[in-house]
């Protein structure tokens, strides 16, 4: 037979029941505050919560524009990002106009990102036309892929191998004209200067003529206005395939496939001068930890996606993913190489 509990005994029993109820719902935190399941869930990140912009700091249809559109296309198709993503083209000063604005006005912007290449390092290190901002004023998020520098001549050129060409330049660096689609001291110029200087050619005496884009520099080569072309594999494949040019060497760790399968690498020729022409994604310098975590995870997923691999193959890009930490380390290393090259050319700060 149950005995009724009254008075003080009932109060003790009620207090015990309440204690057990609270323990079941949550735990007691510092200062006696109760942490419940609902409270814990409310602190979880829900980033992103609004539209995202990827900036291509170059002209419409250029390499950065193409890369940025490919990134958002695959990320949307794979449902890695549930917000609307757009690409904005911001040409001007080879990327310097955008970079200056971004480094000053978007230091904490979790919703604006951009694609870039070694040109952003060069723009900071050049004496003339350089800017005080670099990758150190951003958060490098990932290197997605890379292209490779090539040395080419016209199909009717007397040169059929790089060493013969380099030997002639070593004897007289002013003998031949080199064309590139970027300005002096920038990517096309440096991808040729680096192996040439390693070979013992005086880089300051090489006659470099810059054109407004890679298409124009190719036209100069085919039209006889230049003897040598410095460009990238992705830009010259169709001309090699059609027999209009000869590619004497490619600056890749191993031979490329397809139309480049018979082209030797610089390393095969005894020239160790790797110049990484990467394409990477950058965010704001002071982006939040949850935004950084989100992009770390999802850019890695992108790199592993079969759709992304097909997109890279369709564009002639070589997969070379580096996460944020390894990308930052690679940037530090290349920054030193570029600094030294510009100093030799008397173009550095």
From TrEMBL:
<feature type="signal peptide">
    <location>
        <begin position="1"/>
        <end position="23"/>
    </location>
</feature>
<comment type="similarity">
    <text>Belongs to the UPF0065 (bug) family.</text>
</comment>
<dbReference type="InterPro" id="IPR042100">
    <property type="entry name" value="Bug_dom1"/>
</dbReference>
<keyword id="KW-0732">Signal</keyword>
<protein>
    <submittedName>
        <fullName>Tripartite tricarboxylate transporter substrate binding protein</fullName>
    </submittedName>
</protein>
<dbReference type="InterPro" id="IPR005064">
    <property type="entry name" value="BUG"/>
</dbReference>
<dbReference type="Pfam" id="PF03401">
    <property type="entry name" value="TctC"/>
</dbReference>
